[in-house]
Design goal:
Blueprint (H helix, E strand, L loop, with lengths): L1 H6 L3 H28 L5 H12 L3 H12 L2
Helix pairs in contact: 2-3, 3-4
């Protein structure tokens, strides 16, 4: 999507790029949650999850996750 938007900038390619970035971020959140559920002892996963939540503007969730990570 980045390449397509760079090669042929338009409203559609910018929208497609935004959607791809949102989808990637949501997938990252899902993967982090799944991994932490399987490996709750690996609290470093929570840092990555917290960053992804912050990037998706889910600030309250990000703070809660990072507080949990900081306890370790």
């Amino acid at each position: 999507a980045k390449k397509e938007c760079a090669q042929a900038p338009s409203e559609k390619t910018r929208y497609d790029l935004e959607q791809a970035e949102v989808n990637l971020l949501n997938e990252r959140i899902r993967v982090c949650r799944d991994r932490f559920a399987r490996h709750p002892d690996q609290t470093e996963i929570l840092i990555t999850l917290g960053i992804a939540l912050r990037q998706s503007k889910r600030f309250d969730e990000a703070v809660d996750v990072l507080r949990t990570a900081s306890k370790d």
